[in-house]
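dumping this here before i forget
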Amino acid sequence: MRNLLLACDSYKASHAQLYPSDLAYLYAYGESRGGAFPDTLFFGLQYYLLNYLAGAVITLDDVAEAEAFWASHFGRSDVFDGDRWRRIVQVHGGRLPLHIKAVPEGTVVPTGNVLFTVENTDPEAPFVTTFIETLLLKVWYPITVATQSYHIRQQIRRSFLATGSDPAGVDFACHDFGYRGVSSEETAGLGAAAHLVSFLGTDTVAGIRLLRSVYGGEMPGVSIPATEHSVISAYGEDHEIEAYRRVLETFPTGTVACVSDTYDIFRTVRDVWGGVLRDEVMNRDGTLVIRPDSGEPNLVVPEVLSILAERFPSSRNEAGYTVLDPHVRVIQGDGMDVNTIGPLYDAIRERGFAAENLAIGSGGGLLQKVNRETLRFAFKASEAIHQDGRIVSIYKAPITDQGKTSKRGRLKLVYDDRAGRYTTESDDTMTRDAFDALPDVMETVFLNGDVVRRETIDTIRQRARTHEERETTQLARQGRGLS
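structure:
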């Protein structure tokens, strides 16, 4: 059974008794302090609010269980103060007396800015604000995957535009192969859902189910029939052609993918797909997507494309790049992550091929090769209000690491439309009237146990696309382009 009072780091159990005895309100915030990307795509908080914090989430039985657990865990019964939590059950019906504000999901914000804030609404329960840090900061994971996929999208989009390919195809250019490579079903759901903010293709069913449950959407991710090595090798090497023909006969229409390096990728592409089965491929009402699955991608993929261009019709687009006949395309699924995808598109561009000839499949590199430090996520208290009304801006400023200096005071995320940039503003640096007059991008999403704002995946995607177009326009104005 889930027990919120046990969903925390052990040391959190002692903090309620360690805060100043006259503390009434505690205000905290979450941010990315920097890291691998210059900005973050905010996504996933709604899942945690609905699944862990909404409604009556604490019962008297939970308190009793927590008291017994912490007493045994610490070897003493004076660490966890169950009476404070029993009061929340009795006064608030087990609902958390919290006010949470957050950036609208799908917003792309430069790192170093506030993304969400948390404060208690009951002056007898300031400890609740930071007690939920352990749970709530796990939003780092969907944000990091969403951010990474957003930057992968920008890499691919630049290649599409630079080589004259229709950018509408970018939506399907990076396919999620990550289901088996993650640590849990919940990780699969959150990571795959985050990826689907930027792309439409996925084989990770858990992400689709999460989006349909939490973010709406009839079918937010799509896929195609495809083979794996066991399908091809089950026929034996002497009957490889029979295996490939079975694929074409079973799916005579639409897009189908076939792994083709079970034995010799170059021979298979030249002599089977481009030889024995060429007419069957060309007579299909659809696209055969050939998948190399081994070797150095920057060498293998351009060579496969070159063989296909020899064996199948091709054309030059207005930008001067080769586009294969629409009956054949290539997908690379081995070794693909944010550091290798861009160079692969550069490699095929150098060989004269348009980006639309290639799609990417990414697995563990997409959903698992990240951690909290990828974007240096932190949750810190920044304001304390005492029972006599005294307001104190609180912060940390370790002399040994200035990068860990935290923000002070009450915060707002402000967007300057003319400058096209976000800044975090604090009441610690200006008068209260000036601070109150600032518009805040963050909006209330949770209040006293209720999720008061819910986003749909369609709205989230649209926000991310709006930022993408705005960024493209700004680059064009700066004369930097996208090449």
